[in-house]
Amino acid sequence: MNLNTAPSSERLHIGFFGMRNAGKSSLVNAVTGQALSLVSDVKGTTTDPVRKAMELLPLGPVVIIDTPGLDDEGTLGEMRVEKAKQILATVDIAILVVDALKGMSPQDEELKALFEKRKLPYIIAFNKADLLGSVPDSKKNEIYVSAQKGSGINELKEKMVGLVKDRKSEKKILADLVAKNDVVILVTPIDESAPKGRLILPQQQTIRELLEIGAVTLVVQVNELSGAILRLKDKPKLVITDSQAFKEVSAIVSEDIMLTSFSILFARYKGDLATVVDGAFRLKELRDGDRVLISEGCTHHRQCKDIGTVKLPGWIEKYSDKKLSFSFTSGGEFPSDTGDFALVVHCGGCMLTENEMKNRMEICRLSGTPITNYGTAIAEMHGILKRSLEVFDKKE
Predict the structure, then answer these.
(1) Residue ranges of E strands in the chain
(2) Which of residues 230, 265, 300 is at a domain's end?
(3) Same structural domain for residues 20 and 123?
(4) CA–CA separation, 380 vs 370, rounded Å?
């Protein structure tokens, strides 16, 4: 994957947090070498999170997020503070910026405790160290820096690299399922809901990983699938389909060929496959009047036959044989408590970071709300979920 064009959801997300006037924006600018954030002596200059996707050596492709001060005041200030805390759900590394002259405030201590509760790797950067009489020795996850003088910036980056190395090894979408020279067919319908002139991100990422593996990749539409299989000397190792075409594709692909969907692959890649499978089983337990939340991680123009707002509600009501009440969220919207819903049906989460997808699943767990995703739910409603999961049981 070209580091300069890496999707935002696949980049390392680094959030800068702290009090107003601690020098967060100045430190962001010093770390990035760019005037990314507006800097001023006036408290509260950063009023909303500022995001920048960039190449930050030696870390590689990252998203830098500068957040509002956690001591912002007034009604709007409280909303900004809440927004800053929501950013925690998306970041891989947190940098807590503290005014070295003032030391840790109660809000700083609270945020540090929140980092540790969420097991989020963090560094405490004591800024304005040039104003101290003497600079204390840095600890493992603490460092004294001066954004104004540029001191300690390289050392801060080195500590960030250390946190990245401590993270688990890079996850793969399907590298453990197929091998070099295996034939894999991807079914990617081009209909009125498909983006014009491009493939959606899960399709792009899957194709790229298959190329890296050295697998033989065929990309077809549903009406081309049967002919493509017949032309092959040997049967394909795996067929991966867009969830909306699951029923048609299942009827074409013989039982001795493994079949799954992009959405199911991404449930494993970004979240917890067992949890969304259990959520799919709950579709039969829905009752008249139950509320169902359908959530998408991206925002896009709704088509007349949109899967999230049109197709899925119809399929779910038909399958459950119940009259239900549906709510919809998209992009960064997601409730902090899903207790009012009987079920959450989420997209594959390709536009969300792994942390953000897992945070949404954790919200559902704490609220006692089952959660599933598009592909898993559709497979269950078409009676092919068990078959769609067999590929994970047959790993060599």
Answers:
(1) 12-18, 50-56, 60-66, 93-99, 122-127, 142-144, 183-187, 216-220, 238-241, 258-261, 291-295, 325-329, 343-346, 371-373
(2) 265
(3) yes
(4) 15
Q: Are residues 29 and 70 in the same domain?
A: yes
- Kindly tell me the sign of the dihedral angle through the C-alpha atoms of 231, 266, 54, 59: negative
- Both 187 and 134 in one domain: the answer is no
Average pLDDT of every residue of the chain: 85
User: Domain range holding 346?
Assistant: 272-381
Q: What is the pLDDT of residues 126-161, one digit of tens each?
A: 999 999 988 887 788 899 999 999 999 999 988 988
Q: Contact 18/96 with Cβ under 8 angstroms?
A: yes
Structure tokens belonging to residue 179 = 């091998």
Count structural domains, the chain.
Answer: 3
Among 16-25, 33-42, 109-118, 383-392, the range with the most confident prediction by mean pLDDT is: 383-392
396 in Cβ contact with 263 (< 8 Å): no
Verify that 44 and 145 share a domain, yes or no: yes
Query: Average pLDDT of 100-118?
Result: 89
Query: Per the structure block, which two tokens stand in for 326?
Result: 């549906």
Q: Provide the 8-state DSSP code for 242.
A: -
Cβ count near 107 (within 10 Å):
15
Which amino acid appears at position 211 of this protein?
Answer: L
Read off the DSSP letter of residue 133. Answer: S
Query: What is the per-residue pLDDT across 27-50, written as a single tens digit (0 to 9) for each?
Result: 998 988 876 544 444 444 444 568
**pLDDT tier at 309, thresholds 50, 70, 90:** confident
pTM of the model: 0.72
The three-class DSSP label of residue 192 is coil
